[in-house]
């Protein structure tokens, strides 16, 4: 059973998400919170498998709440929810340690699928959010950084995989593009996570663009 926590300052949103989740086999809501401060406390008490976290909330926003939760619980799986795909806080949320990012108006099936993905140890980004993240790097005026030393150990095939991860492709899509098995793709991704010191696929995207290994656009 996947244990889910719902964090949103709007009671109607919390109730709607909770009803949807509790009605889905294999999922259950173990806690709710109306702001970031409450979210940190409820997480510490309930230790849910996945957190649905709103970004804009009173007292403490979702980004800072996520940062505090991940700092105390490195294995926390937080799915950030927002009304806008071009939310200016996308990049900050990912840097805070979020494992996924989804629009609030996404179909219920997408939300449930995202919960399953995060519970399974992977990360997820809505396609529009991936494009937003790429633009974040493309619009930066600072010169390209030197490649970090740890990238020296990345193989040519792993670079191919990293490029496709940075484009927002899933393991299945990467396998099809490179004509390899999904299991092999997972192995490459796992090795990249280890070599680059990344906690999830989102961190791989950030490392790829920040280092200059992958060019924005």
TrEMBL record:
Ribosomal protein found in the keyword field: no
Keywords: DNA-binding, Phosphoprotein, Transcription, Transcription regulation
Taxonomic superkingdom: Bacteria
UniProt-listed CDD domains: LuxR_C_like, REC_NarL-like
All residue ranges annotated as the Response regulatory domain in the record: 3-119
Keyword Phosphoprotein: yes
Cross-referenced SMART domains: HTH_LUXR (SM00421), REC (SM00448)
Residues annotated with 4-aspartylphosphate modification: 54
GO MF terms, alphabetically ordered: DNA binding
InterPro entries per record: CheY-like_superfamily (IPR011006), NreC/VraR/RcsB-like_REC (IPR058245), Sig_transdc_resp-reg_receiver (IPR001789), Tscrpt_reg_LuxR_C (IPR000792), WalR-like (IPR039420)
SUPFAM superfamilies per the UniProt record, alphabetical: CheY-like
Family matches, as Pfam families: GerE, Response_reg
HTH luxR-type domain location: 147-212
Name of this protein: DNA-binding response regulator
Lineage, broadest ranks: Bacteria, Bacillati, Actinomycetota, Actinomycetes, Micromonosporales
């Amino acid at each position: 059973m996947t244990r889910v926590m719902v964090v949103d300052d709007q009671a109607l949103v919390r109730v709607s998400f909770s009803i949807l989740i509790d009605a889905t086999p294999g999922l259950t809501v173990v806690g709710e919170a109306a702001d970031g401060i409450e979210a940190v406390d409820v997480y510490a008490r309930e230790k849910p498998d996945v957190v649905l976290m709103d970004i804009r909330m009173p007292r403490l926003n979702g980004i800072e709440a996520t940062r505090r939760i991940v700092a105390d619980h490195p294995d926390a799986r937080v799915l950030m929810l927002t009304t806008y795909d071009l939310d200016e806080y996308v990049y900050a949320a990912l840097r805070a340690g979020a494992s996924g990012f989804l629009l609030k108006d996404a179909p219920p099936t997408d939300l449930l699928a995202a919960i399953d993905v995060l519970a399974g140890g992977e990360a997820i980004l809505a396609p529009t959010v991936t494009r937003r993240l790429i633009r974040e790097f493309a619009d930066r005026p600072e010169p390209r950084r030197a490649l970090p030393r740890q990238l020296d150990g990345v193989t040519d095939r792993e670079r191919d995989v990293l490029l496709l991860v940075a484009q927002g492709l899933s393991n299945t899509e990467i396998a099809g593009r490179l004509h390899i098995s999904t299991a092999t793709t997972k192995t490459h991704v796992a090795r990249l996570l280890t070599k680059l010191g990344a906690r999830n696929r989102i961190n791989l995207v950030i490392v790829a663009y920040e280092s200059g290994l992958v060019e924005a656009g």
